[in-house]
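Re: the 232-residue chain
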Amino acid sequence: MARSQRMGGVAALVAAGTFVVGFALLFALLVPAGYFAAEADPVQNAAFLAEHHAILSLWYLTIYVVFGVVLVVLSLALHERLHGAPAIAQVATAFGLIWAGLVIASGMVANVALRAVVDLHATDPAQAASLWMAANAVVTGLGGGNEIVGGLWLLLVSSAAMRTGALPRALDVFGIAVSVAGILTTVPVLAALGLFGALFGLGLIVWFVWAGVVLLRGSPGGAVDRPGGPLA
């Protein structure tokens, strides 16, 4: 089994782990605190951020920066595996790397802004709230307010794998279904429901674990060792 495929498998499992951490803290801390409630007071949210600064910094680092890093590794491993459909694989890899760059940037902005909000909150809570509202719009826009980039990446990967047999067909079909949920988050009416974003995130956990196991096992139909591959 090629080293790049093992690395891709590990990266996929780590990616799934970042999503699990994301959802766990979301429902264990943020939702119970009413952070996302429609009637939430921005000043109270800023106070919440200041109080939980350390754990939220780690959260943003995990769900954005760590995820973006392992997504680069996974994208390159899948590019090698999908060599039977080079045109689609190249476009998919481009979207994978773009997505990785966006989420890493999102995490960096979030943590820098979070530190500034904490410092400002001690002297001017209202200004701290305004700062976070502005920063959070950037973070959300870059990191998943809509999932068009991630959805297209998964759709292209699944389509290429279906053509080449590089991944199990059931995984391909599941990936296409999950990708559609992500792409539908670009529709404002549907995005407001929050349903398709949740389906995309939860579906990705399953897809990453499934794909990670396939890459680690070196299932038939996968990539072969090729000198000069992306992770050779």
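DSSP finds nine helices and no strands in the chain.
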